[in-house]
C-alpha cells in the first residue's frame, strides 16, 4: 500500500509517498480502506521529531480516518460488516491506503456526510468533547473561552459548547475568522493580534470572567488566561503552540482565583479510555450531525489535498492558514 513517509525529522520537504507493507487486522480489529485522513498538529510535531507515537502504534502519520471496512480480524464477533462506511480514531497510521482499527474506536459515518467530511470528525471532535465534557465539565450557562477558535478543535468546540447550552467565546485572527466563528455559534470573537483578549473577555462577561478556558497555546498566554479566569474557573491545557516556559507568579495568581489548571492529551490515553470516549460520543453527539435535529453539527473542512500533495498540506497548517480541518484524500 502507499503511505505518507519521512526518513528523518525535519520540515515538510522531507515528506513523500512510499510503498509499505499492508497491515493485517488482529483479534477484535478490522481493516479500513482509507478514503480520507485529516491533518493534526500532532502530525507536524511527529514529523519534526518532537512527538513520538505511543508504544505499539504505527509510525505512519494520521490520527483519524474515514473509509470502508474491507477485512475482519480472526474470530471477529462484532457488528461491523465488510463494505460498511466508518470513521476511526487512531494512535497513528491514518495517512495510508489501509489501517487496522480496534472495533471500539470505529464510529458510523453520519447520514448526509461525505467520507472527506467524516475524516474531519474523530480526533478534533473527540478532543473537544473530552476537554469540555470529561475534563472541563462545562455546565449550562457557563462561558467557555476557546483559543485557536477557527482551527479543527476550535470549530468543533464552538458547536459542542452550544450543544451543552453554554456560551462560547473565541480567540482567533482577522475579522473574517471572527465572523466565521460567530456563524458557528460563538457569542464573540477576539483578534489576539490587535486586542487584549483577556480584557475583552472580562467585558463580555460583565467582569465575572471565564468559567472554562480551552488552551492549546500555553506559555505565552498564561498571564492573560489567569487575568480573565473567573473565580473557581477551570483552565484546560491541551497544547503548547505558544511555548512551555512560564516566568512569573502563576501559582499565586491561580491560588487567588481558586482556579483549577488541568492538562489533557488524547493520543496517549489507553485503549479502554478511548473506547469509552468513542462510545459516549457516538451516543451523545453523532446523532446531531444528521439532518432534522434541533441542533445541527457540521465538521468544518478547510481544504482537501491529494496524498501526493502532503507537503503543501503541512505547509498550510504550519503557516496557520487553515480555518477548520485540512484533509488528505488517499489514491
UniProtKB/TrEMBL annotation:
Keywords: NADP, Oxidoreductase
Pfam families per the UniProt record, alphabetical: ADH_N, ADH_zinc_N
Superkingdom in the source lineage: Eukaryota
Gene3D superfamilies: Medium-chain alcohol dehydrogenases, catalytic domain, NAD(P)-binding Rossmann-like Domain
Entry's Gene Ontology molecular function annotations: NADPH binding; quinone binding; quinone reductase (NADPH) activity
Domain Enoyl reductase (ER), first and last residues per copy: 10-328
Keyword flag Oxidoreductase: yes
PANTHER family associated with the record: QUINONE OXIDOREDUCTASE PIG3 (PTHR48106:SF18), QUINONE OXIDOREDUCTASE PIG3-RELATED (PTHR48106)
The protein, known as: Enoyl reductase (ER) domain-containing protein
Phylogenetic lineage: Eukaryota, Metazoa, Chordata, Craniata, Vertebrata
Amino acid at each position: 500500500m502507499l503511505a505518507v513517509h519521512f526518513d528523518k525529522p525535519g520540515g515538510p520537504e522531507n515528506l513523500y509517498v512510499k510503498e509499505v507493507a499492508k497491515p493485517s487486522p488482529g483479534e477484535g480489529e478490522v481493516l479500513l480502506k482509507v478514503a480520507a485522513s485529516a491533518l493534526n498538529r500532532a502530525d507536524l510535531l511527529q514529523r519534526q521529531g518532537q512527538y513520538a507515537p505511543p508504544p505499539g502504534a504505527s509510525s505512519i502519520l494520521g490520527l483519524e480516518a474515514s473509509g470502508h471496512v474491507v477485512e475482519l480480524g480472526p474470530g471477529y464477533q462484532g457488528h461491523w460488516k465488510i463494505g460498511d462506511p466508518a470513521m476511526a480514531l487512531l494512535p497513528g497510521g491514518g495517512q495510508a491506503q489501509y489501517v487496522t482499527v480496534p472495533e471500539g474506536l470505529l464510529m458510523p459515518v453520519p447520514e448526509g456526510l461525505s467520507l472527506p467530511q467524516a475524516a474531519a470528525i474523530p480526533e478534533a471532535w473527540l478532543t473537544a468533547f473530552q476537554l469540555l465534557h470529561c475534563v472541563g465539565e462545562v455546565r449550562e450557562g457557563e462561558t467557555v473561552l476557546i483559543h485557536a477558535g477557527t482551527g479543527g478543535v476550535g470549530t468543533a468546540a464552538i458547536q459542542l459548547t452550544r450543544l451543552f447550552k453554554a456560551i462560547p467565546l473565541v480567540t482567533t485572527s482577522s475579522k473574517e475568522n471572527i465572523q466565521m466563528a460567530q456563524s458557528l455559534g460563538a457569542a464573540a470573537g477576539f483578534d489576539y493580534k490587535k486586542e487584549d483578549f483577556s480584557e475583552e473577555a472580562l467585558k463580555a462577561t460583565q467582569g465575572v470572567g471565564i468559567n472554562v478556558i480551552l488552551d492549546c497555546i500555553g506559555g505565552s498566554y498564561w498571564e492573560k488566561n489567569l487575568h480573565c479566569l473567573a473565580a473557581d474557573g477551570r483552565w484546560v491545557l491541551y497544547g503548547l503552540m505558544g511555548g512551555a516556559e512560564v516566568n512569573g507568579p502563576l501559582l499565586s495568581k491561580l491560588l487567588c482565583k481558586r482556579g483549577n489548571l488541568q492538562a489533557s492529551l488524547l493520543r496517549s490515553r489507553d485503549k479502554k479510555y478511548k473506547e469509552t470516549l468513542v462510545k459516549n460520543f457516538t451516543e451523545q453527539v453523532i446523532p446531531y450531525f444528521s439532518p432534522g435535529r434541533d441542533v445541527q453539527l457540521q465538521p468544518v473542512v478547510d481544504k482537501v489535498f491529494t496524498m501526493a500533495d502532503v507537503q503543501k498540506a503541512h505547509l498550510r497548517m504550519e503557516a496557520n492558514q487553515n480555518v477548520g480541518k485540512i484533509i488528505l484524500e488517499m489514491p
